């Protein structure tokens, strides 16, 4: 039975699990505390073997060979694991090799985290999926970092986020789930929501897809706001410039938006709660099809920078106000820029990791 469960866990991580298999897996997980612990630890260890920031996955066959070379082939340990074949190689090799690498190399320099915490950093141009100790899943966007304990506290589950992430939280009303990020603290008991809190952007944003969450501003008492599905909460920063003031400044006329100092309350000039929003517009960044809807190029440029790991310089300010709608599916950056230049009055130059955009007045002559 355990080997069957291991196979289901592998399919779950790989994304190839069917709906029926997923139901079977989680019925087994929920059957006992031991199963929950086995599942969460197995998934955590297995995910460590995925190449950070790349699409390549862990090669179980090579891992098994490397592991078997280290073990005495006559030992009981080897005979026991050999019967499980490649599945055993993945889990044991992850435990012996991946776990230490993950815990030490991915903790950024200068970060004062204890050995009981794990930090996942996702570089620009990448995305990552993490399964937390309670089985909750988190999709982490490019240029983001999330830290969480190896084992959650008995009374609460707390993670710290810098950047953007989508949370699918396992329901547990006795142990609320908290996300602490720049300026806000989100409380959930079991729900799906998206948090966007990049230091170089002019806002902090929370989107609720399913369930219910409560949002508090950091260090502000009596400020709890309860959100319901299809609502968007936006906190506009007082100290940051508007959309076009990130890395793609208009000919450097404006300085880059400053990063908010850590441990200092976020200065907010405006709080906005919007209902009946299309949540997929704000969460599809994690999916194969990325939905863009009435997005001004000033904000779109910031997202393109993170998604494709490039620097975008806008030479003409008016380009920032052009709005775009559409769906991108596995397109590379050049394909995206080609479509934008065909459908709107812009031209671009693309050199390695640098993109220059400017207004094209001749666009209307040919249309």
Structure overview:
There is one protein chain. The protein has 367 residues and is an alpha+beta fold. The chain folds into three domains: 1-105, no CATH class; 113-279, Sandwich (Jelly Rolls), CATH 2.60.120; 288-366, Phage tail protein beta-alpha-beta fold (3-Layer(bab) Sandwich), CATH 3.55.50. It has nine helices and 18 strands. The protein has helices spanning 2-14, 19-29, 33-48, 60-70, 76-82, 85-105, 279-283, 297-308, 333-343; strands spanning 117-122, 128-131, 137-140, 144-149, 157-168, 177-181, 184-188, 192-197, 203-210, 213-217, 225-227, 231-237, 268-274, 289-296, 311-314, 323-329, 346-351, 354-359. A hairpin with a 7-residue loop joins strand 4 and strand 5 (157-168). InterPro entries: FecR, FecR_C, Ferrdict_sens_TM.
Question: Tell me, what is the CATH class of the largest domain?
Answer: Mainly Beta
- Sketch the topology as an H/E string, one letter per element: HHHHHHEEEEEEEEEEEEEHEHEEHEE
Q: Total domains, how many? A: 3
* Percentage of residues in DSSP E strands: 25-35%
Q: Might you state the CATH topology name of the largest domain?
A: Jelly Rolls
Structural class, from secondary structure content? alpha+beta
What's the assembly state of these chains? single chain
Domain Protein FecR C-terminal: 294-357
Protein name: FecR family protein
GO molecular function: sigma factor antagonist activity
Pfam families: FecR, FecR_C
């Amino acid at each position: 039975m355990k080997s069957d469960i291991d196979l289901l866990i592998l399919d779950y991580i790989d994304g190839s699990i069917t709906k029926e298999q997923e139901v079977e897996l989680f019925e087994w997980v929920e059957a006992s505390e031991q199963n929950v612990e086995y599942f969460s630890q197995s998934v955590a260890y297995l995910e460590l073997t995925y190449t950070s920031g790349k699409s390549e996955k862990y090669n179980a066959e090579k891992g098994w060979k490397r592991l078997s070379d280290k073990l005495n082939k006559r030992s009981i340990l080897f005979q026991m694991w050999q019967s499980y074949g490649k599945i055993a190689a993945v889990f044991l090799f992850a435990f012996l090799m991946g776990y230490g690498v993950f815990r030490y190399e991915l903790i950024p320099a200068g970060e004062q985290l204890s050995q009981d915490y794990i930090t996942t950093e996702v570089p620009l141009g990448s995305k990552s999926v993490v399964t937390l100790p309670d089985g909750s899943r988190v999709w982490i966007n490019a240029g983001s970092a999330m830290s969480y304990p190896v084992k959650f506290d008995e009374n609460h589950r707390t993670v710290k986020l810098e950047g953007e992430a989508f949370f699918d939280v396992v329901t547990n009303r006795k142990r609320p789930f908290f996300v602490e990020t720049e300026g806000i603290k989100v409380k959930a008991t079991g729900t799906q929501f998206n948090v966007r809190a990049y230091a170089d952007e002019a806002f902090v944003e929370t989107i609720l897809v399913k369930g219910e969450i409560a949002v508090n501003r950091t260090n502000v008492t009596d400020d709890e706001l309860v959100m319901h599905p299809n609502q968007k909460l936006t906190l506009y920063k007082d100290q940051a410039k508007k959309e076009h003031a990130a890395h793609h400044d208009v000919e450097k006329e404006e300085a880059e938006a400053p990063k908010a100092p850590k441990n200092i309350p976020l200065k907010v000039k405006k709080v906005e709660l919007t209902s009946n929003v299309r949540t997929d517009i704000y969460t599809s960044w994690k999916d194969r099809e990325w939905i863009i809807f009435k997005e001004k190029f000033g904000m779109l440029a910031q997202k393109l920078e993170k998604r494709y790991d490039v620097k975008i310089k806008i030479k003409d300010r008016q380009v920032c106000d052009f709005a775009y709608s559409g769906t991108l599916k596995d397109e590379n950056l050049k394909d995206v820029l080609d479509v934008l230049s065909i459908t709107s009055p812009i031209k671009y130059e693309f050199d390695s990791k640098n993109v220059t955009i400017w207004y094209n007045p001749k666009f209307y002559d040919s249309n």
